[in-house]
Amino acid sequence: MATKSRPKDLPLDAENTAIVANALQKTLLDLKALSLVTKQLHWNVRGPHFKSVHEHLDLVYDATEEAVDEVAERIAQLGESPNAQASDLKGAAVKEVPTGFIEDQQVLELIVERLAAATHDIRDRMAETEEPDPASADLLHGVVLAIEKHLWMLRSHLLKKGD
Q: Which of 130, 133, 139, 158 could connect to 20 by a Cys-Cys bridge, CB 3.0–4.6 Å?
């Protein structure tokens, strides 16, 4: 059986590549699932705050899809194959949302919960990748910053007087 030969100019050795690529692959699946959930909510939001929630979910979707591409390309840069097909998403940590139309306040609760969970998991992966590959960890830092900005803005809609 022939063994796969690694190019000599890859940024990491095989052991560190495996650690980092695994963390990035999990992040890729979570981000892709998050983008699909975001669009599902975007299409099905109803209520008095429809327009602002609908439009903000488009911003979240765009930021998430940009992160999907950046993470997938980083996996490829490490010499590994990124995978995020529909069948791969069953392993994502991001939970699905109910089908059908959903009131705007519930949409906000659902997206805030998923954004918070995603950033928590990505922060764990930042720690995993920091030592073996600061460049990949830096990419994840940027992803977290972008998602947490939207999390802050969307969470602000849920705060009640005195919170």
A: 133
- Percentage of the chain exceeding pLDDT 90: 85
**Type of residue numbered 18:** A
Helix (H, G, I), strand (E, B) or coil at 46: strand
**Cα angle 92-95-97, degrees, rounded to a multiple of 5:** 135
Domain coordinates in residue numbering, the chain: 14-80+98-156
State in words which class domain 14-80+98-156 has. mainly alpha
Q: What is the pTM of this model?
A: 0.92
**pLDDT 10s digits, 69-107:** 999 999 999 999 999 999 989 888 899 999 999 999 999
